[in-house]
Amino acid sequence: MRQVYRWVSALALLNAAHAFASSDPFIDVLEPGGAAVGYVFRWEHSTYRGAEGGADQTALYLYEGEYAYLHATRIGLKFKQDDWRFDAFIRYRFEGFNRDFRPESTANLPLREPGYDAGLSLRRKTSWGTPYIELLTDVSNGSGGSEARLGYWNEWRHNRFTLKPHVMLAWRDEKLNNFYYGTPTYTAGAGVDVQAALYASYALNERWNIIGAITATRRSSEIASSPIATGSAQGDAFIGFLYDFQPAQQRWAPASKPLIVKFLYGQSSDCNVAQTVELSCTSTHTVDNTNVAAVHFGRKLIENAGGWPVDLAGFLGLQRHFEQNYGNDYWSMMAFFKVYWTKFPWDNYVHTRFGFGSGLSYSEQIGQMESHDQGRRDRGTWKLLNYLDPSFDVRVARDTYVGVGVSHRSGEFGKSEFFGNVNGGSNFIYVSIETAF
Questions:
Q1: pLDDT value of position 5
Q2: What CATH number is attached to the domain comprising 343?
Q3: For 101-119, how does the pLDDT look when each residue is reduced to its tens digit (9 = 90+)?
Q4: Least confident of 154-168, 180-194, 423-437
Q5: Whether residue 400 has pLDDT greater than 90
Q6: Among 241, 256, 279, 361, which is most exposed with the fewest C-beta within 10 angstroms?
Q7: Are residues 295 and 408 located together in one domain of the fold?
Q8: Is 427 contained in some domain?
Q9: Are 264 and 161 within one domain?
Q10: 76 Cβ contact partners less than 8 Å away, ≥ 6 residues apart
Q11: Cβ(420)–Cβ(257) under 8 Å?
């Protein structure tokens, strides 16, 4: 229950606020090789005047390695010594506005899009709670600003129910504040923001958990005085769920885990991913003739989960996009979990499996397929999108498979700020070969 709760409170914190996401709450909560997914729905009273109301939603992906981790919107390296922990990381900053969801007060201003921060953090567990410090600086050519944070966590547990209070001070420099809240007639200087939050979780069982939170933030006077701000108060709340892949069973751990390597080549398709999986639409190059080639590296995390013929693997991928005469070729990267169903009635004759991957994809630039799809509907694009990878494979040797699948990027129907509120994406139908070493 303790480990489940820690995951839950971490998920809660990460999505509780746009610009004020605190120091990484996933620290020291997962054993190496641990994995979890979740989904949250969030409601916010925005700092921006005239911002659209409504719910935001985000899928979450978690993986903990020995020295590296993926924590939904944060990827980093970790170093531990007794009760101390030091992290170096890159994280997504939930702040600003994009083309498709612009507050009314910013109508005549340049876009202030969310960015990426590089950071260092240090924390220590004590008998009275967990204090931490964190330093951040923009690395996305956006604000160019920096932030220093000082925070504190505590927790109270009773049976399946847990509360976790959190407080934090954040000093933000002038570059950061002015980028997001300055105007041609107003300069937002450096200032200190204050946040208090209460996170809650309830464990339905060993795998499923309900999560929720309320958060209150008091902005500095430099932000509150901006003509595009509503004042100093910001609040939000959310509710969601978390699925723990494995508290109830021993992690799959052979003497040495094999490295999975997969090569694929795909062609652009105007079919959506559901149509392709159903085999109702499998045409390629009907709108453009762009292609991709990719390599995925992964390891199996769980074998026969819960006694079912279901395996779970984690992958990192690098994909090259060939734009032909539409523009320059470019790279994209992905990190995702993939679940495989491994048992079918015809296994005595030929062994097959169906896989479904889900995670994150970051593109170096926006390609022809996504630009065309979004442009014809007058919608914006985003470099970071959700990634899906359904596939069907046939085993041709002991650990070798050939297969077909779809490499898909999209923005969750425009309902996720994390994915730029993008409604659309791209599909490439591919053939592949995979083996393990």
A1: 40
A2: 2.40.160
A3: 788 898 888 888 888 999 9
A4: 154-168
A5: yes
A6: 256
A7: yes
A8: yes
A9: no
A10: 24, 68, 69, 87, 88, 89, 90, 91
A11: no
CA-to-CA distance for 337 and 428, rounded, in angstroms? 19
- Nearest CA among 110, 144, 6, 1 for reference residue 64: 6
Is 302:63 a contact under the CB 8 Å cutoff? no
The enclosing H or E element of 269 equals none
Question: From CA 282, how far away is CA 274, in angstroms rounded?
Answer: 11
Q: Extract the tokens encoding 253.
A: 């751990």
The pLDDT tens digits of the residues spanning 195-253 come to 998 888 888 887 788 888 888 899 999 999 999 998 888 888 888 887 877 655 455 55
Look up the pTM and report it: 0.77
Distance set, CA 195 to CA 40, 43, 279, 316 (Å) = 20, 17, 50, 35
Is 194 inside any structural domain?
A: yes
The Cα–Cα gap between 245 and 339 comes to 11
232 and 216 in contact (C-beta within 8 Å)? no
Q: Is 224 in contact with 218 (CB distance < 8 Å)?
A: no
Tell which residue, 360, 363, 356, has the closest CA to residue 290. Answer: 363
17 has a pLDDT exceeding 70: no
Judge whether 255 lies within some domain.
Answer: no
Contact of 311 with 292, CB cutoff 8 Å? no
Going through 272-421 in order, the beta strands assigned E by DSSP cover: 291-302, 310-322, 330-341, 352-363, 384-397, 400-410
Across 5-11, average pLDDT: 40
Domain span at 7: 2-244
Contacts 24+ apart (CB under 8 A), 346-352: 350/394, 350/395, 351/394, 351/395, 352/392, 352/393, 352/394, 352/395
